[in-house]
Amino acid sequence: MGVTERLARVSSRHPWRVLLGWLGAIVVALGLAVTLLPGNLTTNGHVTGNPESAQAERIFSRDFPPDRRGVDELIVVRSPAETVAAPGFRRFVAGLLARAKATGVVHHAAALAASRDRHAVLIGIQRQADVDPLLPVVEQSDGRDGFSVVMTGEGTLDHDFNDLSQHDLKSGELEFGLPAALIVLLVVFGAVVAGLIPLMMAMISIVVALGLCAPIAAGFSLSVFFVNMLTGMGLALGIDYSLFVLSRYREERVAGRAELDSIAVAGATSSRAVLFSGTVFVIALSGMLLVPSNVMKSLAVGAISVAIVSVLAALTLLPALLGLLGDRINSLRLPWLGRNTTGEGRFWGAVVRKVMRRPVVSLVTFGALLLALAVPAVGLKLGASGVSTLPDRLESKQGFDALARDFPQQSSSPALVAVVGDVRSPRARAGIVRLRRELAHDPVFGGGSDLRITSDGQAAAIGVVVAGDKTGARALAAVRRLRSTEIPRAFDGAPVRVLVGGDTADNVDFIDAMNAWLPLVFIYVLGLSFVLLTIVFRSIVVAATSIALNLLSVGAAYGLVILVFLHGYGNGLLGFQRVHAIEAWVPLFLFSVLFGLSMDYQVFLLSRIKERYDQSGSTTEAVTHAVSSTARLITGAALIIVAVFGGFAMGDLVMFQQMGFGVAVALLIDATIIRSVLLPAAMRLLGAWNWYLPRWLEWLPRIEVEAAAREKPVPAAGS
After folding, report:
1. Separation of alpha carbons 711 and 493, rounded Å
2. Residue 579 DSSP one-character state
3. Does 707 score more than 70 pLDDT?
4. Which strand (E) or helix (H) includes residue 108?
5. Dist. CA 355–CA 375, nearest whole Å
């Protein structure tokens, strides 16, 4: 008796103990989440380790006191009727500053510049506290006495990103993804109670996983977006894993087994498949932990945590619920739905039989289609989505637009150039002068620069404003040019080391890290997946075929994301923005998640094919039977994940639009073209070679994904 079967038997025989244990876990998790998550999440993405931007930041914080002239937020006050010198304009600004200082947020405030038409003034704010109390003051002042008042800056942007991620979580994942998943479950099961159980399992998994991640957030400051990711993956995996186990239980009951025996068989078969699928998913996502990025590590921590909890819930909590409810899970039946629990699907059966009759035509046609969709991925360009991509209703975006209109050379995000060494040497001094002169003539750095030198002459700090969106294409290109061309030319031969820091430089380091680690994560995930599949199916051909087909679906998803978001094909119809680059973390994340999720279905299907092949000895019959008999479950499971990640795509954050759209289209491709056409065609052509394992690998252990039931049930009368 395997571990999963023993867990199922014990849980179903002692359901109240299991339920009390999970109830305790929920209470503890809620307490941890409420106490440790607030204040420990960040919207900043940065490279961990020791990139150039981090080195520059450390030098600035160590050798230079905070600049009293530095600003965190910028407020633009504009009047269409009065000029900045008018008494009414001055009174309004004075009143605004008085109300701002009364919040306790403002450490220092000063007027920095007037617009060319003299109808707007720029106010710099140096904060000493969180920006939240200041935002209502700005919003209430906007429109008063005919004045426009908007604000942007680091704190305002963080606030808006936090609010937008919570809005997208509520409107996309919970208000769209959750109801859509319920509809799919009702169609699959045909009963309200059976449809609600997977949703309840998913919600419990999400709560417990949040509690598990709370201490990690307190110690390492996770990205705020990990909550969105954990919730989305929790809905997808929690529902899918419960769907597989619950469906197997119902199949066994229809076949005539007793309730407890059906739970045990489901534990020995589907629960074991869930355990293996969860393991594959965790391995695929663990590649993201290798990447030196707080965003990637945060998303991986959220996804891996909720995957582990979802597996544990499917192995223990679900059998306990089945032990309590029994056949009452079929309560509140829906007419005409969910009646076919064990038979072959007619539609998919017809499709796969046609494919098996013409495997070469099917393989070439649909393989060429996916390759054509993947071609745009060759032009993959990584970047970052900043304030310019936010909705116009947000304060930071309104402030950014006002800056671009009235003060195009201003920003609250300077580039910080650290010069370390003998900065008083003639060559170093000449280099500083030359660099500042070059910066003054650069349109991106056109706001001038300031210079500070330590008393011992061993370090100098040059601060220069980066105009526009700090993560925009112009800003990123300007910092790259500063590092690669202007600094080496200015300091040629000088006895100093020059480093560039600041938010834009940090984004450059982040994008470069994603570019560097993408192929390494590919190799890591593909290598481990190949080893696991070879062990499970005892065939290097099946393993290689599965990986090749998954790469096809991932490549097609990359191509479609680039066509829609970079080239603008269909973006208006789908409600997406056209942007200058794909979010740097999205391709790597897409690969890891898609490989983990699609491998679930691939393993589930291949295990059924192998089981049937061992019985019949015919690849054609095994593939036809397995595809048509698993179609309902796999299609339903895929549609649930498509619905959940479609909720991501419906949000306003461009990065999550790209990620949600990519996952949704890839899983649609995987559940249709890959599963019903390419895999059957490839296996039909390979024939007996599908199960080839070199003799020198015969020592590999034998692992069954779904253990066969030890005894057959006695068929019910008339069945």
Report:
1. 82
2. -
3. no
4. strand 106-114
5. 25
The answer to whether the beta carbons of residues 337 and 190 sit under 8 Å apart is: yes
Spatial separation of the C-alpha atoms in residues 718 and 22, rounded to whole Å: 41
CB 570 within 8 A of CB 564: yes
How wide is the angle at C-alpha 210 spanned by C-alphas 204 and 212, nearest 5°?
105
**What is the sign, positive or negative, of the torsion defined by CA atoms of 429, 432, 435, 439?**
negative
* Residue given tokens 């003998």 in the structure block: 422
Give the residue carrying structure tokens 């220069």: 464
Nearest Cα residue to 128 out of 64, 73, 56: 73
Closest Cα to residue 607, out of 710, 694, 687, 707? 707
Three-state secondary structure string covering 459-520: EEEEEEECCCCCCCHHHHHHHHHHHHHHHHHHCCCCCEEEEEECHHHHHHHHHHHHHHHHHH
Q: Is the pLDDT of residue 586 over 50?
A: yes
What distance in Å separates the CA atoms of residue 247 and residue 245, rounded to the nearest whole number? 5
Backbone torsions φ then ψ of 497, nearest 5 degrees = -115, 130
User: Whose structure tokens read 């499917």?
Assistant: 314
DSSP class of 49: S
Pairing of strands 41-42, 120-127: unpaired
Question: Alpha-carbon distance 561 to 635, whole Å?
Answer: 22
Strands 222-223 and 41-42: parallel
- Residue 464 CA to residue 414 CA, distance in Å, equals 5
| pLDDT given at position 447 | 62
Q: Is the dihedral of CA 284, 287, 289, 294 positive or negative?
A: negative
Please tell me the distance from the alpha carbon of residue 463 to that of residue 432, in angstroms, as a whole number. 12
What's the Cα-to-Cα distance from 11 to each of 247, 258, 267, 321, rounded to whole Å?
18, 16, 10, 9
Q: What is the sign of the dihedral through the CA atoms of 283, 284, 285 and 288?
A: positive
What is the rounded CA–CA span in Å between residue 593 and residue 299? 10
CB atoms within 10 A of CB 215: 14
- Stretch 369-397: mean pLDDT: 88
Q: Count CA atoms closer than 13 A to 498's CA, side-chain side.
A: 24
Residue with tokens 């003639």: 426
For residue 709, give the nearest of 247, 344, 263 by alpha carbon: 263
The 3-state DSSP class for residue 36 equals: helix
Q: What are phi and psi of 152, to 5 degrees?
A: -145, 165
- For residue 540, how many other CB atoms are within 10 A of its CB? 16
Average pLDDT over residues 65-94: 88
- C-alpha 389/C-alpha 655 separation (Å) is 10
Range with the poorest average pLDDT among 64-68, 258-262, 291-295, 585-589: 64-68
Token pair of 238, please? Answer: 């929690």
> Which tens digit of pLDDT belongs to each residue from 220-249?
778 887 888 898 889 889 988 998 889 888
- In angstroms, rounded to a whole number, what is the distance separating the alpha carbons of residues 571 and 574? 5
CB atoms closer than 10 angstroms to residue 211: 23
In the beta sheet, which residues pair with residue 415? 464
Q: What pTM was computed for the model?
A: 0.83
